[in-house]
Amino acid sequence: MMNRKILRGFRGVSISIFALLVLAVGVSAQGGNPFAPEKAPPLPAGMTGSDVNDPRYSLKPGLFDAAEYSFGIKHLNLYKKPAAFDLGIDPNDPRVDKALGALGIPGNAVPPAMKMTIAGLALANSDLAFQGNYLFLGNFYGINIYNIADPAKAQLVTSMLCPGGQGDVSVYKNLMFMSVEMGNGRLDCGTQGFPLQTAPGPAPAEKDRFRGVRIFDISDIKNPKQVAAVQSCRGSHTHTLVEDPKDKNNIYVYISGTSNVRPSEELAGCSDGKPDSDPNTSKFRIDIVKVPVAAPQNAKIIASPRIFSDDKGKINALTDGGSHANKGRPEETDQCHDITAYSAIGLAAGACSGNGILLDIKDPANPKRIESVNDKNYAYWHSASFSNDGKKVVYTDEWGGGMGARCRATDPNVWGANAIFNLHNNKLSFANYYKLPSAQGDTENCVAHNGSLVPVPGRDIKVQAWYQGGISIMDFTNPAKPVEIASFDRGPIDPNILVLAGSWSAYWYNGNIYSSEIARGLDVFELTPTKNLSQNEIDAAKSVQMAELNVQSQQMIVWPNKLLVAKAYVDQLERVSALSAAECTKLRVALDKPVRSRLAGFAASVQKQSRLMRNDPYMAKMQELAAILKQPGI
User: Fold this and answer.
1) Which residues, other chains included, contact 11 with Cβ-Cβ below 8 Å and sequence gap of 6+?
2) Which one of 285, 293, 385, 592 has the fewest beta carbons within 10 angstroms of its own beta carbon?
């Protein structure tokens, strides 16, 4: 049985390579395989599992020939990994030993049956960022940049080798940022790594090791140039770009580090001390980097706020409250996995191991925690998204750390799920859970992961990655009743061994959905109309165009005052019978052949009806529709 306590540290695969190797060799010596499926536990009493009758449950396995299922999503293309990032399928391929070497592991030290899984960690695709016609695909081994001017015919622009995991990427103007947390990262981006650690405990100090945030100048998109490398004590598992509306000369970077603390011999000032005896411990904090946009080489850490402290100065004041993953024993929260900054409303939502938190970021250099929640059903608070109006927050739970099969029929549908909260007066109140409805197999790593909003006006919709569970699109307009409205899935890579794969991040950008497929490459999709989502709603979503997208730096969506947006509202109001079918037919005729005076008449009628719908959830849609009809952008 796989030792999940070691592998749950995946959370981006910032695991101890030494510990993983010892585990693999030790279990192999006993005739086992730590990556063989673990026996699914029985479903806890009173809980509900996932649906084995869903067609996604029984898809044929394969790497590039796996069966696929989709509903409401059209798969446009899969762009396979460039050669330098591709392992192939043969464990005896020299590329496999090279990938192991990048982790500091000799190829002959790993049993053949385990080579592909361990080597796959070195070349896993990770997060995505976008700017103009360019897509930036992070990887544990570097970054690939694509031209997506034609999403169905994307072109690889450049591949940059720069190992260190997990390679999360962000872009801002002419700058690109990359997270580095694993011990094989080097200051010079070298692929040789460091010698294999031969004893348990912290890795030996290395003067050339890099763990933190790299900054590149991408003025020449084909030749990114590293201009700064900001070291941090726990490395950078993820990072978040935060803009200060009052300061256009600087961009701030919040570093979330989840790995072990480096020895002070390697980076001065680092300490792994306990908070009760060492007030300067490198845990229980985030780091904030100030980057002068015109002089990024001068980037440096300017603050390390204790965002888990209380008003009495106790820096380890937050706990998970005792989750099921630790059998109810409370654990201290000493790290954030991911922080989503929504500068337009002055708030950030932190998914911080044992807690979901809210930060006041009106002064980005001095964030203040103003709210925190925990949940016994949550094993590891992983990421967060705001609704566009800022009235809801969706947190995710990465139970099992991403290396576990956690969507089996006997896995509770409230573990490894989304938790949706209402947000009012800076207070969070729980509404409901949402988990991928379809059961997945024993060799499919599956749990809630990264996603973004789909900009359909009048609705709160999120597209989301679930690793080998594929992609699920959730409508959480009613936070008490979230529902799946579209999906895409493939069969497992291997029916006998859990091979790390699936969608790491699934994001909407300027009309398409892009998915970072960990083992296969880059997937591109488009939405198709169903009874749950009309073509008019899809067209309205496509009308929203962004110059840049870093999902952890959430932007407020503003829809154009166009008739296609009005058509989307009409479809929604008809779907819930807020407008009669006859009224909707007349409106559609008027919208197809627009005359301002006629539209103004409809505007007055719709506005009058909206006044009679006080406290009705659809009143706002009526008012938005009336506003467009009154002053349409024809």
Assistant:
1) 237, 258, 337, 380, 382, 398, 401, 402
2) 592
Give me the half-sphere count of Cα atoms (radius 13 Å) on the Cβ side of residue 54.
26
Query: Tokens for 307?
Result: 């965002």
- Identify any residues that bridge with 70 across adjacent strands, giving them in sequence order: 488
In sequence order, the β-bridge partners of residue 176 are 171, 216
Burial label for 303, CB within 10 Å (0-12, 13-18, 19+), is middle
**Could you count the other beta carbons within 10 Å of the beta carbon of residue 130?**
21
Do 384 and 371 contact (CB within 8 A), yes or no? Answer: no
**pTM score, two decimals?**
0.95
Tokens of 347: 């708030």
Query: How sure is the predictor about 615, in pLDDT bands with cuts at 50, 70 and 90?
Result: low
Residues 577, 564 contacting (CB under 8 angstroms): no
395 within 8 A of 384, measured Cβ to Cβ: yes
- Helix 535-542 / helix 563-575 crossing angle, nearest 10 deg: 140
Higher pLDDT, 146 or 121: 146
| Encoded tokens for 446 | 């599956």
619-630 vs 563-575: helix crossing angle, rounded to 10:
150
- Spatial contact of 181 and 258, defined as CB atoms under 8 Å apart: yes
Residue 346 amino acid letter: G
pLDDT digits (tens, 9 = 90+) for 159-210: 999 999 899 999 999 999 999 999 999 999 999 888 766 666 677 899 999 9
Q: Cα separation of 136 and 520, whole Å?
A: 16
Q: By CB neighbour count within 10 A (0-12 exposed, 13-18 middle, 19+ buried), where does 182 fall?
A: buried
The confidence score (pLDDT) of residue 365 equals 97
- Residue 436's nearest CA partner among 417, 410, 412 is 417
User: Alpha carbon 372 to chain centroid distance?
Assistant: 20
Q: Say how far apart CA 371 and CA 86 lie, in whole Å.
A: 43
Q: What is the pLDDT of residues 571-594, one digit of tens each?
A: 999 999 999 999 999 999 999 999
Whether pLDDT at 7 is above 70: no
Tell me phi and psi for residue 453, to 5 degrees. Answer: -75, 145
d(CA 553, CA 550): 5
